[in-house]
């Protein structure tokens, strides 16, 4: 399963009501960034629950395309 450690981190943040946001730069140079404050950038910002849902869907799509 891809993103295993990140998904566990997101689940823990949701469980503990941690107030953070995430960005996800998709593509070849994929990058995740956890932020505590909003800042001016072109990357979309996700809550832990939103990013967990997106990663789960991404895994499903990848499994389907194998």
Describe the 3D structure.
This protein has helices at residues 4-15, 48-64, and strands at 21-25, 31-35, 45-46. The protein is of the alpha+beta class and 66 residues long. It has a 3-stranded antiparallel sheet. Strand 1 (21-25) and strand 2 (31-35) form a beta hairpin. Helix 1 packs antiparallel against helix 2 (48-64). The protein starts with a helix and ends with a helix.
Comma- or semicolon-separated keywords:
3-stranded antiparallel β-sheet; 66 residues; alpha+beta; 2 helices
N-to-C order of helices and strands: HEEEH
Helix content: 40-55%
Judging from the principal axes of the Cα atoms, what is the shape?
Answer: globular
Query: Strand pairing plus helix content: what structural class?
Result: alpha+beta
Estimated share of beta-strand residues: 15-25%
Q: Largest sheet, if any?
A: 3 strands, antiparallel
Strand arrangement in the largest pleated sheet: 2-1-3
Please state the average pLDDT score: 86
Q: How far apart are the first and last residues' alpha carbons, in Å?
A: 13 Å
